[in-house]
Amino acid sequence: MTERTGIFAGDDPFALSRRWLEEAEKSEPNDPDAAALATVDRNGMPNVRVVLMRGVEDNGFVFYTNYTSAKGQELEQAGSAAFVIHWKSLRRQIRVRGPVARIDPSQSDAYFNARPVQSRVGAWASRQSTPLQSRETLIAEVERLTETLGDAPPRPEHWGGYRITPLEIEFWADGEFRLHDRFRWTRADRMSGWTIDRLFP
């Protein structure tokens, strides 16, 4: 096995990811869990946007979104995705690729119910990725739904979580003169063991 020490030490890539995220929480000014999520549409055209990775589980990374949005449709169609989290303050990044699937509805319910009421109403009001006539239209819909849904809006069926189960994870750290350190973890499927390679920068 490739020798790894210091910030790269450990035999569990998910524990290592959590450790890096915890370190970033102390130094990143905003959203240390922000990730650039890449998908592809039916025509093979790539797409990328920032989402918040709200959970690093024992075998995957979880984020939440509108299932009917452009990203949701592309995730459902392709069944796989990739993302990168880059922490400027730490000069590190994590890259992930793998299959993606919806999480259990009860897990989505628990996360949704923990959000501020205004954010929960917003999930109902937004027809994410579709044309919007004006911001006033959106605000009016939020106000209407605030009265209709009350203080405990339930999770709409079109909103919930996805889990990316990596087949490849790369840990990258900045090096002097651009001689970066890169370690790539790969496996054939979620039940297989990991192979770890040090990569040229």
UniProtKB/TrEMBL annotation:
Residues 22-146 form the Pyridoxamine 5'-phosphate oxidase N-terminal domain. SUPFAM superfamilies: FMN-binding split barrel. PROSITE patterns: PYRIDOX_OXIDASE. GO terms for biological process: pyridoxine biosynthetic process. Keywords: Flavoprotein, FMN, Oxidoreductase, Pyridoxine biosynthesis. FMN binds at R49, V50, V51, L52, M53, R54, Y64, T65, K71, Q93, Q128, S129, W172, R182. It catalyses: pyridoxine 5'-phosphate + O2 = pyridoxal 5'-phosphate + H2O2; pyridoxamine 5'-phosphate + O2 + H2O = pyridoxal 5'-phosphate + H2O2 + NH4(+). Substrate binds at R54, Y111, R115, S119, R178, L179, H180. It is an enzyme of class 1 (oxidoreductase). Binds 1 FMN per subunit. Pathway: Cofactor metabolism; pyridoxal 5'-phosphate salvage; pyridoxal 5'-phosphate from pyridoxine 5'-phosphate: step 1/1; Cofactor metabolism; pyridoxal 5'-phosphate salvage; pyridoxal 5'-phosphate from pyridoxamine 5'-phosphate: step 1/1. GO terms for molecular function: FMN binding; pyridoxamine phosphate oxidase activity. It holds the Pfam family PNPOx_N. Its cofactor is FMN. Catalyzes the oxidation of either pyridoxine 5'-phosphate (PNP) or pyridoxamine 5'-phosphate (PMP) into pyridoxal 5'-phosphate (PLP). Belongs to the pyridoxamine 5'-phosphate oxidase family. PANTHER family: PYRIDOXINE-5'-PHOSPHATE OXIDASE, PYRIDOXINE-5-PHOSPHATE OXIDASE. Homodimer. This is Pyridoxine/pyridoxamine 5'-phosphate oxidase.
